[in-house]
Amino acid sequence: MRNEYFNVMNELGFDVWSATPALESNCQHIESLLPRLQALSMRTHQWITVIGARREVIEQLVAAGISRTRIRWVHGRNQDEREWATEQALLAGTSSIVLSWLGELSPRMQQRLKMASKVSQTHSFVLNDLPSPTPLH
């Protein structure tokens, strides 16, 4: 399965091996990132930290070939806790990838996360596909 995702990566044109770690915000869905995450996770044995995600996301990562023993799953009760956990995970420098499910970020928080990602040389992805409220009609 690992080779399958690597081949998809090449077909999509991502150059994972020379990618500079950075904060990527406004990612819509985890499915589009799975090949890239799998390829990035093969480069190191550090944690893949997942913040604010549902259990299904962990299962998707495992199905993509990422070892469950390398996934650190952090819950956050609210936006502030998830933002704090994301910043701390980046600053700790113990993760190769930090995936966060955050709502709308203030420009200040975007800048803080971008700087933390740059300083720690950690790939960081902020997804915003939080479950939407039930429609009223």
Automatic annotation (TrEMBL):
InterPro entries per record: P-loop_NTPase (IPR027417)
Domain of life, source organism: Bacteria
UniProt cross-references to Gene3D superfamilies, sorted A to Z: P-loop containing nucleotide triphosphate hydrolases (3.40.50.300)
SUPFAM superfamilies assigned to the protein according to its UniProt record, in alphabetical order: P-loop containing nucleoside triphosphate hydrolases
Protein name: Cell division inhibitor SulA
